[in-house]
Design a protein that fits this description.
Layout: E1 4-9, H1 16-27, E2 29-33, H2 52-57, E3 60-61, H3 74-90, E4 94-99, H4 102-109, H5 121-134, H6 136-146, H7 148-153, H8 159-172, E5 190-197, H9 200-217, H10 219-228, H11 243-250, H12 256-279, E6 284-288, H13 295-310
Parallel strand pairs: 1-4, 1-5, 2-3, 2-4, 5-6
Length: 312
């Protein structure tokens, strides 16, 4: 019988960390983060990283693992996370994947081979030069010619993905795989995939309150500190919500009040995209949380739900 892992996912601000910790303490598990921002060092506030107190309640992996100046791919995440899963299994404990980055989660649950293509340094330099000289639209036109399906999925302003898709199409002849729609389960292990969700207005209120709290905790100062380290709006790590808006504010594009408004708006839009992503997955089991109940009441119901699903 295959070993089994637990996945707890859902939109931003739904409450994933608290319920993953509850599950870890109840089931003897360790948490492996599936969050594309929490993996970076020094980005504690904007990523809503588990606090030191929360990390004391359960062992966490893949938090504070990567320097924010370094590019980091889903392929690299897959490698590190699978290593962590094996480590947890060897301890006789339950790996609990927790996060809201859908592609990270899919890379662990489904067959996704990232060994398609080695880096094409010379061609990449040529494509980057085209982007600098002629703009992102010129790159997107190249992609349209070699892989129209990928061009339909990738926004013209996402230069990194556009270039990578061109490289794949030009060298493989088959285009870049539509990983986000592939649900062929991995042979490595079985899994129970739980999605946490709340009523939309309730979730949006939580998002707005969280942004206010992050500002009170010093998000602006965190961004200033990262910029002093040499990070800019071009750094991959700084394109996350909360960071990019405050960089623009500090660069004089708009005032702080507008920055906070945009962070809230963009966070709500991101939550909507996350829900859409996870709802496409046929293997997810949804658990509804409610602000009408206390945390203890929600937690008790969640753990009972988890027990029942685990035994199915």
């Amino acid at each position: 019988m295959k070993q089994k892992l637990l996945v707890i996912a859902g939109p931003t601000a739904v409450g994933k960390t608290a319920y993953a910790i509850s599950a870890a303490r109840k089931l003897g598990g360790e948490i492996i983060s599936a969050d594309s921002m929490q993996i970076y060092r020094y980005m504690d506030i904007g990523s809503a990283k588990p606090t030191p107190e929360e990390q004391e309640k359960a062992v966490h992996h893949l938090i504070d693992s990567i320097d924010p100046g370094k590019e980091f791919s889903v392929a690299e995440y897959q490698t590190l996370a699978k290593e962590a899963i094996c480590e947890v299994f060897k301890k006789g404990k339950l790996p609990i994947i927790c996060g809201g980055t859908g592609l990270y989660i899919n890379s662990l649950l489904y067959s996704m081979n990232f060994g398609i293509l080695p880096k094409q340094d010379e061609r990449r330099k040529e494509l980057e030069a085209i982007g600098e000289k002629e703009g992102n639209e010129a790159l997107h036109e190249i992609l349209q010619k070699v892989d129209a399906k990928a061009a339909a999925r990738i926004h013209p302003n996402n230069r990194k993905k556009t270039i990578r898709a061109i490289e794949v199409a030009e060298n493989s002849g088959s285009g870049i795989p539509e990983f986000e729609h592939a649900f062929q389960k991995t042979d490595d292990y079985d899994f129970l995939f739980i999605g946490l969700i709340r009523e939309r207005e309730e979730l949006y209120r939580r998002i707005n309150l969280r942004v206010d709290l992050l500002m009170e905790q010093g998000l602006l100062e965190e961004v200033k500190g990262l910029m002093e380290q040499g990070l800019t709006e071009e750094s991959i790590s700084m394109k996350g919500i909360g960071y990019k808006e405050l960089i623009a504010c500090l660069n004089g594009e708009y005032d702080l009040e507008e920055a906070v408004r945009l962070i809230k708006r963009n966070s709500r839009r991101y939550a909507k995209r996350q829900i859409t992503w996870f709802k496409r997955d046929p293997n997810i089991r949804w658990f509804w949380l409610s602000e009408k109940l206390s945390f203890t009441e929600n937690e008790t119901a969640f753990l009972q739900f988890l027990k029942e699903e685990w035994q199915r």
